[in-house]
Amino acid sequence: MNSQPPVKARPAKSSPEVVVDAILSGIRSGRLVPGQRLVEADLTHSLSISRGPVREALKRLAAEGIVTLNQNRGAYVRSLSQKEVADLLKVIEVVTGLVASLATRRLANGHLREAFIRAGENLLAFEALGDSLAFMEKRREFYDVLIDASDNIELKRIMPLMQIHLLRLQFQTRLTATDRRKQFEEYRAIIRTVLSGSPQLAERMTRLHIRRTRLSISRLPDDAFSLADRQRIVG
Q1: pLDDT per residue over 98-109, tens digit each?
Q2: Partners of 38 in the beta sheet?
Q3: pLDDT at 4
């Protein structure tokens, strides 16, 4: 008689974890957007969880740079200021360049090459379809494959994925038609150089793409940025 080892049940999530997951899910789906207020009473009602765990969850997300807590105004999905955008994209430029370099070496040996080609095709298909949450999802999948192909666990840990998603939600619809055209030209260049097997060129093209994104966002009007920025400008 063959006996199967008992399947261990996954531990139930704590109440704060349930709230954290709900907020992150809302951000990923676009139901929650940068600058949107998170009302404690609404969260307690919709999740059937008391205020204590909700407040703990909001503090956790604030520590991770996903939520902004204001003593007088409550909790909001984080909206990035001009300096925060610049600082974040400088970090992303370096890290993503390293990802592209490492991934290029691995892809040359066949590691996830077909998955990368498919992810690139899925991303480029949105050039004619316009901006949407589906486009942002395909872009996320493209970079996920690139990160997986780099085969570096620490890069997966340090890549600020949710902050990148917040940045995309905040600014993607602000890009001009010229910005979008350049954006897709750069995606094609990144895909081409990664598949060419030149790590140095792939890193350079990826870093140039992130740098151009930073410059494009820096030219946006003041109302594209966080309330703190606008208050500082008015004051």
Answers
A1: 999 999 999 998
A2: 75
A3: 58
Residue bearing tokens 């995606």 = 187
Q: What is the CATH number of domain 15-77?
A: 1.10.10.10
Residues 78/184, Cβ–Cβ less than 8 Å: no
The domain ranges of the chain are 15-77, 82-223
Handedness of CA 81, 64, 164, 86 (dihedral sign): positive
For residue 45, how many other CB atoms are within 10 A of its CB? 10
- Where do the H-state alpha helices sit in the chain? 15-29, 40-47, 51-63, 82-108, 113-124, 133-150, 153-158, 161-171, 177-196, 199-218, 227-234
Higher-confidence residue: 13 or 191?
A: 191
Which residue's structure tokens are 């070496």? Answer: 105
Q: Does 3 have pLDDT greater than 80?
A: no
Q: Is 157 helix (H, G, I), strand (E, B) or coil?
A: helix
The highest-level CATH class for domain 82-223 is: mainly alpha
pLDDT band at residue 146, thresholds of 50, 70 and 90?
very high
